Amino acid sequence: MSPNPANRDDLDARRKGARRTAWIVGGIAVLVYVVFLLMGVLGQ
């Protein structure tokens, strides 16, 4: 039995939100990593 279109749209919206949240968290992690690298290089 396949889900009705309303459930599918809700699931797609939740996946899109989760994907966006993952990109934001990943971007922040990369930014923190780069800042620590620069602090180490420039602090010498």
Structure description:
- The chain crosses the membrane at residues 21-42.
- Keywords: Membrane, Transmembrane, Transmembrane helix.
- The protein is mostly helical and 44 residues long.
- It has one domain.
- The protein is built from 1 helix and no strands.
- It has one helix at 5-42.
- It is rod-shaped.
- The chain starts with a helix and ends with a helix.
- The model has no long low-confidence stretch (mean pLDDT 90).
**Largest sheet, strands/sense/barrel:** none
Give average pLDDT, whole number: 90
Alpha-carbon Rg, integer: 19 Å
Q: Estimate the global geometry from the Cα principal axes.
A: rod-shaped
* Number of structural units classed as domains: 1
Q: Spell out the helices and strands N to C.
A: H
In the predicted model, the low-confidence regions spanning at least 5 consecutive residues are: none
Summed up, the helix count is: 1
By DSSP, the count of extended strands is 0
What percentage of the residues does DSSP assign to strands (E)? under 5%
Structural class: mainly alpha
Helix content: over 70%
C-alpha end-to-end distance: 63 Å
Transmembrane segments: 21-42
Keywords: Membrane, Transmembrane, Transmembrane helix
Tell me briefly what this model is.
With 44 residues, the protein is mostly helical. It is built from one helix and no strands.
Task: Give short descriptive properties of this protein.
44 residues, mainly alpha
Write the layout of secondary structure elements.
Elements: H1 5-42
